[in-house]
UniProtKB/TrEMBL annotation:
<protein>
    <submittedName>
        <fullName>Glyoxalase-like domain protein</fullName>
    </submittedName>
</protein>
<dbReference type="InterPro" id="IPR029068">
    <property type="entry name" value="Glyas_Bleomycin-R_OHBP_Dase"/>
</dbReference>
<dbReference type="InterPro" id="IPR053863">
    <property type="entry name" value="Glyoxy/Ble-like_N"/>
</dbReference>
<dbReference type="Pfam" id="PF22677">
    <property type="entry name" value="Ble-like_N"/>
</dbReference>
<feature type="domain" description="Glyoxalase/Bleomycin resistance-like N-terminal">
    <location>
        <begin position="3"/>
        <end position="41"/>
    </location>
</feature>
Amino acid sequence: MTRMIFINLPVTDLTKSMAFYESLGFVNNPHFTDETAACMVWSEAINVMLLTHEKWRTFTSREIPPMTSSEVMLALTCDSREIVDKLNELAAKNGGTADINPKQDLGFMYNRNLADRDGHVWEMFWMDPAAIPAAGSATEK
C-alpha cells in the first residue's frame, strides 16, 4: 500500500471550506465526506480532512487554537512559480488570506504563504532541483 498522509483540520463552515479548497485545485473524495467531514485530495498521497468543530472534538479534547496563532505550516510543492502566484490569488479571492508571510525568492526556490478560511497556514512552493546550491551554501552569509 502506498504511504499516504491525511491532514486533519478543524473548520467553522464545512461547505465554505470545501469550496475554498476546491478553488485551489483540491478534489473532494465523496467516500470520506459527510455532513461533519470532507476529504479533499491534493494528490494520490496527500489528503486534507476538513472537520467540523464538533467532529474534531471526537478526536481530541485539546483546544482549537485561535486564527491568530500558528502551530504548523503545511508545505505543498507546485510545478511552477506561476502556480504558486495563482494559488495565492485564488486564496484571497475565495475567503482565505494571501501572503501572510513575506514571499521568498532564493532563485532555485520560490514560495508564498497563504491561510485558509480558518487560519490554517499553507506554504506553496516551487523548487528547481537542478539549481539547488551545494550543501551549506544556502545558509552561509
